[in-house]
Amino acid sequence: MTTYDRTTQDMGNVISLDHVNITVADQQVATIFYIVGLGLTRDPYLTVGLENMWLNAGRQQFHVPTNAKAQVVRGEIGIVVPSLDELEDRLDGVKPRLSDTGFGFSREDGALAVTGPWGNRFRCVEPGENLDGARFGVPYVRFNVPKGAAVGIARFYGTVFGALTAVDEVDGQTAARVTAGNGQELIFKEDPAEDRGFDGHHIAVYLTDFSGPHNALESRGLVTEESNDHQYRFKNIVDLDTGDLLYELEHEVRSTHHPMFQRPLVNRDPSVTTRNYRRGADALNVG
């Protein structure tokens, strides 16, 4: 009889990293970068005005509301794309229109390292083990954290959230890995050179045990917003023994009863143009 390591299929209590929310200073520039360049799709149903965009990337999203001060994740966001060659062509095409911004990109180690107009960093790769083979999506967000914080961060997520965690090395630095969905993770890499303060960006995650983490956070005075019956927020990741702050990152925590849980997202095929259009080829099979 064949035997299997069943633990390889465990996910823990955090079952989905839903979106990353980062403000932008200009919606037109954001459109050029995120839609024309990266190939994401503007959500056709929600936030369709000029003050915000929801951008579909497979089964995940970026939310980019307008603010005079753009927010920058202290780290890197991973994106799986169908084709690096096609992505590179699109980025090369938008380069002249983004010349007055911080935009840039380079090919390295089987990936495209992309810097957005306001400094956010993305690492784009083709489908593989990342995101369980999906063709488009957000497999991870990596955050730069202070020296000595990774072990405490892993313990925080494991104890408070019931998340699967591990501590290992990323680029020679100690890092906490937190499973955040099917083929998704949050990575907290120690970086002694990181000196930027928290600017208010947030992530949204879904939990199966929704009330347990809330009770644990509330008992420590960490809940910052009681949004509604299926959502709350917190910001401070703390040492569970001392209460000392380890890292600031706002979390929008949702239950599986949230009306947007597993909401189907529209994804266009960014390789389709008016010149190569084939009937029925509008949508992208994200896998």
Short description:
With 287 residues, the protein is of the alpha+beta class. Helices cover 15% and strands 34% of the residues. An 8-stranded mixed sheet has the order 2-3-4-1-13-16-15-14, with helices on one face. Strands 6-7-8-5-9-12-11-10 form an 8-stranded mixed sheet, with helices on one face.
Task: Give a description of the structure.
- The protein is of the alpha+beta class.
- It has a domain at 14-196: 2,3-Dihydroxybiphenyl 1,2-Dioxygenase, domain 1 (Roll).
- The protein has four helices and 16 strands.
- The protein has helices at residues 27-37, 84-94, 150-161, 211-219; strands at residues 14-21, 41-42, 54-57, 60-63, 75-80, 104-108, 111-115, 121-125, 140-145, 165-170, 173-181, 184-190, 202-207, 223-228, 231-238, 245-255.
- It has an eight-stranded mixed sheet, covered by helices on one side. Strands 6-7-8-5-9-12-11-10 form an eight-stranded mixed sheet, covered by helices on one side.
- Helix 1 (27-37) packs antiparallel against helix 2 (84-94).
- It is globular and about 60 Å long.
- The two termini are 31 Å apart.
**Which shape, going by the Cα principal axes?**
globular
- Assign a percent range to the helix content: 10-25%
Low-confidence stretches: none
Q: How many E strands? A: 16
Global mean pLDDT: 96
Let me know the largest β-sheet. 8 strands, mixed
What is the string of SSEs from the N terminus onward?
Answer: EHEEEEHEEEEHEEEEHEEE
Give me the secondary-structure category: alpha+beta
Query: And the CATH topology of one domain?
Result: 2,3-Dihydroxybiphenyl 1,2-Dioxygenase, domain 1
Please indicate the percent range of residues in DSSP E strands (runs of 2 or more). Answer: 25-35%
Write the CATH architecture name of one domain: Roll
Please state the CA-atom Rg, rounded to the nearest Å.
Answer: 19 Å
